[in-house]
């Protein structure tokens, strides 16, 4: 009789989904920007409806990705010298590694759309706090944040979608060094517009 019960029950408990498993599955996709919810469910080995119990749509998927990515990035940035330049360097390298591990993620972030405000605000607050501790005014810390984020995300999106500007692959270390030499933002000594 126990064999008959096992046949009726099916193959056992349904697969468990977690946010880390979702992020891992997304990282295996060719392009997160074009990944469908059905493709994601299939790669997780769950039904489409089971995935929708975790995330309702692509916007929620990107919110979940942003939360996990930001946690990982901030953890790496906070591990070391708190001096603003060293901290921003770690932050940028962590962004590079985490964003490029999710093909299409930087491209998605670089386009105008509604971002997960909570995740982005966590990075914004951390960057601002590091700069403020080094004596940068609140206004210039905000400008510095905008410049930093726009440049790094733009560079990463361009890396995912090569512009074919030359034969050599772009070097993140050179890009980052040049960017950081210009930060923090400051008022110009001359009013040239």
Description:
This protein is mainly alpha-helical and 193 residues long. The chain is globular and about 60 Å long. The N terminus is likely disordered.
Task: Tell me the major beta sheet.
Answer: none
Order of helices and strands: HHHHHHHHHH
User: What is the overall shape?
Assistant: globular
Uncertain segments: 1-12
Q: List the total number of helices.
A: 10
Average of the residue pLDDT scores: 86
Describe the structure concisely for a colleague.
This protein is mainly alpha-helical and 193 residues long.
Map the helices and strands.
Layout: H1 2-9, H2 19-27, H3 37-44, H4 48-54, H5 58-77, H6 84-100, H7 105-110, H8 117-133, H9 138-160, H10 172-181
Short key terms for the protein model shown above:
0% strand, mainly alpha
